[in-house]
Prior knowledge:
Blueprint: H1 11-28, H2 33-40, H3 44-53, H4 58-67, H5 86-93
Amino acid sequence: MNGLSVQWHSPEEVARLLSRRLRDERLRREWTQETLAGRAGVSLPTVRRYEQTGRTTVGNLLKLCHALSRLDEFAELLKPPPAQSLAELEARHDDGTPKRQRGRR
């Protein structure tokens, strides 16, 4: 495979999908938008706008997901694919930055 992948969704479609899922999760818990806003530390208009349009900042989305105990799912995003060789695995581990060493006195 040449590294190209087909993307089936546009950014706007994914934003709307996530906002619907967030709304569904809020409703499943029987929370009002005001309850979610308070627990997430964002304004009520932020929650309303996000649920209606799918538009918000990444920071606000993370706060909303944290309030719903769904933040850990973001840790799985953009993970590198499995290494194809031991050399590739070692290269990922050694990122080229100098390692901290004890100073000589």
